[in-house]
Each structure stands twice: as structure tokens, then as C-alpha cells.
């Protein structure tokens, strides 16, 4: 009898979860009827060099009053990107007047690190990402390629499923990707985690029909 | 004074940049006699190398015997100034350097680093080379590319526009179009 109840509960929970995940995915791809017009706290995941330049180009044409406050995240080993974001925001401290913040996150894997040691660092990075996401609970997530965005987006997706926070996830594939998506882009695409996924080359859009192509950012 | 002005007028600098990491095979190649001779033949007078974290140190030269003036440094916060004063840029394949150079319409040879593990970098350089915005080379073909350089066929790069992406994001979030 106890076994039966257990199995019954497991089946029910799994079914509910599957239905919920399917619902989250289907809702995410649809435009929202956002009638409240409130400010949307925005998490911006920065990567090195070219990634950050592309992201700043995008941010420079977005309405700062709609997407506020902005939380910038970059890998702990990357000082340049946050510096560029500070220059872009015109904020020299760690915090701006409207609550805009600059934060660092542990990376799951450094370039050249072995796959075995990266298990431990990945767990550390996940924990850190979870901590930041609990603190920030952003309405909008903007990312464009660095691996750092994967734990962030995965946690955001889980938050959506659990009803903790509904985040809109936008991913812009780097202009450097002409023929194939990056690993981050591919994961988000295959797992239906991004609300919208943009690519910057038409030939890439042909391969991934659910992606949007609307020209180059650079 | 005249002498200085003349000298300035004829200064044609080649700026080599490897970005934030290292790219010894590129630095070694541009430091070779063959490449330096090819650059001289094309009318360049100065060679400035940003060598990053590389371990290969190029040979400095003041160019007294009519050879190329060679100088190098590791990093600089004013790469933009070097790019602006260059007549030709030889760059690693990072998208940051590529677009920074294209935006100020400088002739560009991108050299793909074949030692990188995940070599997606060649995709961008090859695509832009196909569109004639730049030349694409490998360290071992750089000399040939310099010899065959024809700046007249370069097509100026039209900068992209982030507005369409921003519009779609706004639309998805239900914000009214401006």
C-alpha cells in the first residue's frame, strides 16, 4: 500500500513537472502582454573582449529607464569587462544611484583546464550562480555567449518552473559564430531555455529556424 | 624641421596585435626577414608589435640601414591610438580587434591562430574575407598574403545596427514601439 502511494506520488509529481516545464517553454516563446509597464530589473552577463563590445552596442540602444536596475556579471578572472560596463554606465563604484550593480562570478571552467578538475569548479560556479540569482531575481536576462551564462540561464529556467520568478531570457549569439552556434547557444536552443535567440548571420538562422536573424550588432 | 616633417609624411606603420593572450607564431612570423622585406617592398617603414603574453621577443631595430623600424610592447590601454596611426593592421582573429579596425577603415590582415583548441575564430575572418572587408591568413601564409596585398579591392565595412534586436526584445516584453 505504501509502495503504491509512493509510486502514485512520484508519477503525479513527474507529470505535473513535465506539464509545468512544457507550459514554461510554450509561454516563453510567446510575446507577453506586459501592461504594467514597470521597470524590469535586468541581468547582463558579460564575456571577454568581443562579447562585451557586442553587448555594450546592444545596451546602448536599449531604453535605460525600462531595463533598470541593471546587474552586470562577469567572470571573476575578467576585470576588463566590468570596467567597460562601468565606463558605459558612467559609474565608478560598485553600485549606481538606480541600484545598478557590478558583480563577479566564478567560472565553471577556465580555458585549458582539465575536464576532471572542472567537475569541482563547476559545482562551485553553480552554487555561486544560485546565490547571485536568489539575490537578484532578475526580470530580464541578456547574454551573448560566454559559458558563464549557462548556469545563470539554467537557474532562471528552474525559477520559472518553480514559480519563484518569471525571467525573460534573451540570447544573442556572438558575431564570431558564422556557421555553428557556440556551445552556450546550442544548449539554450536545444533546451528551449531562451525566450528569444538571435543570430547575426543569415546562414546560421537557416540551420536553426527558431532563431531570429535581424542583422549584425557590430 | 623640414626633415622631421618629411620623415613624418613617409611614415607608414604596420601595427601587429595579438590581443589579450599570446600568439608567438604570429610574432615570430612578422619578425622574420622575409615578412619584413615584403613589408618594405610594399612601402611600409615602421613595424609596431603588440606581443601580449608571448614569450618570443622580436628584435628591435632603429632602421638606420634602410630597413624597417621595429618596436614592440606587451600591452597598452591605448590600442585605439596605435590602430589609428597605422597604415596596415595585422591582427589575431578576435572579433574585438577585427571590428575595432574595420570601424576606422584600416586595411586589415587577420591571422588565424591554428593552435587554439576550439578554433571557431576562423569562421568570422573567413566570412569577412569572402566579403572582401579584410584579408585572412595563417602564420605560414602571411608573407604570401602581404606580397599579394591589393588595398584597392577592399570593400569598406558597413557597421551593424543593434536597433532591430532591441526592438524585438521590447516587442516581446510588451513595451510599446517608440
Describe the structure.
The complex is a heterodimer of chains A (218) and B (178). Chain A has a single domain, classed as Rossmann fold (3-Layer(aba) Sandwich), CATH 3.40.50. Helix content of chain A is 44%, strand content 14%. Chain A contains seven helices and seven strands. Chain A has a seven-stranded parallel β-sheet with strand order 3-2-1-4-5-6-7, sandwiched between helices. In chain A, helix 6 links the parallel strand 5 and strand 6. The mean pLDDT of chain A is 90. Chain B is an alpha/beta fold and 178 residues long. Chain B has a single domain, classed as Glycogen Phosphorylase B (Rossmann fold, 3-Layer(aba) Sandwich), CATH 3.40.50. The N terminus of chain B is likely disordered.
Question: What layout of secondary structure does this protein have?
Answer:
The complex is a heterodimer of chains A (218) and B (178).
Chain A: H1 2-28, E1 42-45, H2 49-59, E2 70-75, H3 79-89, E3 101-105, H4 117-136, E4 140-143, H5 149-162, E5 168-172, H6 183-190, E6 196-199, H7 202-207, E7 212-213
Parallel strand pairs in A: 1-2, 1-4, 2-3, 4-5, 5-6, 6-7
Chain B: H1 2-9, E1 13-17, H2 24-30, H3 33-41, E2 46-50, E3 69-73, H4 79-85, E4 88-91, H5 95-103, E5 108-111, H6 121-130, E6 135-137, H7 142-147, H8 163-172
Parallel strand pairs in B: 1-2, 1-4, 2-3, 4-5, 5-6
CATH topology of chain A: Rossmann fold
- Taking pLDDT < 50 over at least 5 consecutive residues as the criterion, the unreliable ranges of chain B are 1-6
Widest sheet of chain A: strand order? 3-2-1-4-5-6-7
Return Rg of chain A in Å.
18 Å
Mean pLDDT of chain B: 92
CATH superfamily of chain A: Glycogen Phosphorylase B
- How much of the sequence lies in strands of chain B comes to 5-15%
Amino acid at each position: 500500500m505504501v509502495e503504491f502511494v509512493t509510486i502514485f506520488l512520484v508519477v503525479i509529481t513527474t507529470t505535473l513537472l513535465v506539464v509545468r516545464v512544457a507550459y514554461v517553454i510554450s509561454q516563453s516563446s510567446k510575446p507577453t502582454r506586459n501592461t504594467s509597464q514597470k521597470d524590469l530589473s535586468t541581468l547582463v552577463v558579460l564575456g571577454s573582449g568581443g562579447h562585451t563590445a557586442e553587448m555594450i552596442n546592444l545596451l546602448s540602444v536599449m531604453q535605460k529607464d525600462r531595463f533598470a536596475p541593471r546587474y552586470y556579471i562577469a567572470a571573476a578572472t575578467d576585470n576588463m569587462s566590468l570596467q567597460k560596463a562601468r565606463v558605459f554606465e558612467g559609474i565608478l563604484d560598485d553600485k549606481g544611484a538606480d541600484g545598478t550593480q557590478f558583480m563577479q562570478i566564478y567560472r565553471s571552467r577556465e580555458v585549458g583546464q582539465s575536464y576532471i578538475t572542472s567537475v569541482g569548479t563547476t559545482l562551485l560556479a553553480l552554487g555561486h550562480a544560485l546565490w547571485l540569482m536568489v539575490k537578484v531575481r532578475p526580470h530580464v536576462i541578456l547574454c551573448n555567449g560566454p559559458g558563464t551564462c549557462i548556469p545563470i540561464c539554467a537557474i532562471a529556467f528552474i525559477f520559472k518552473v518553480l514559480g519563484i520568478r518569471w525571467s525573460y531570457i534573451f540570447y544573442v549569439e556572438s558575431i564570431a559564430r558564422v556557421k555553428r552556434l557556440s556551445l552556450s547557444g546550442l544548449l539554450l536552443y536545444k533546451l528551449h531555455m531562451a525566450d528569444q535567440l538571435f543570430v547575426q548571420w543569415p546562414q546560421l538562422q537557416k540551420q536553426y529556424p527558431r532563431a531570429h536573424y535581424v542583422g549584425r550588432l557590430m | 624641421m623640414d626633415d622631421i616633417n618629411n620623415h613624418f609624411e613617409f611614415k607608414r606603420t604596420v601595427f601587429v596585435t595579438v590581443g589579450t593572450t599570446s600568439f608567438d607564431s604570429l610574432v615570430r612570423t612578422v619578425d622574420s626577414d622575409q615578412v619584413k622585406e615584403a613589408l618594405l617592398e610594399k612601402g611600409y617603414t615602421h613595424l609596431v608589435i603588440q606581443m601580449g603574453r608571448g614569450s618570443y621577443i622580436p628584435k628591435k631595430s632603429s632602421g638606420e640601414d634602410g630597413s624597417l623600424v621595429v618596436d614592440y610592447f606587451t600591452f597598452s590601454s591605448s590600442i585605439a591610438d596605435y590602430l589609428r596611426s597605422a597604415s596596415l593592421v595585422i591582427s589575431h582573429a578576435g572579433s574585438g580587434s577585427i571590428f575595432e579596425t574595420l570601424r576606422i577603415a584600416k586595411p586589415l590582415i587577420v591571422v588565424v591562430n591554428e593552435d587554439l583548441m576550439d578554433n571557431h575564430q576562423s569562421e568570422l575572418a573567413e566570412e569577412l574575407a569572402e566579403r572582401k572587408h579584410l584579408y585572412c591568413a595563417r602564420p605560414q601564409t602571411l608573407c604570401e598574403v602581404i606580397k599579394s596585398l591589393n588595398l584597392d579591392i577592399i570593400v569598406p565595412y558597413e557597421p551593424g545596427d543593434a536597433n532591430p534586436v532591441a526592438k524585438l526584445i521590447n516587442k516581446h516584453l510588451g513595451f510599446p514601439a517608440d
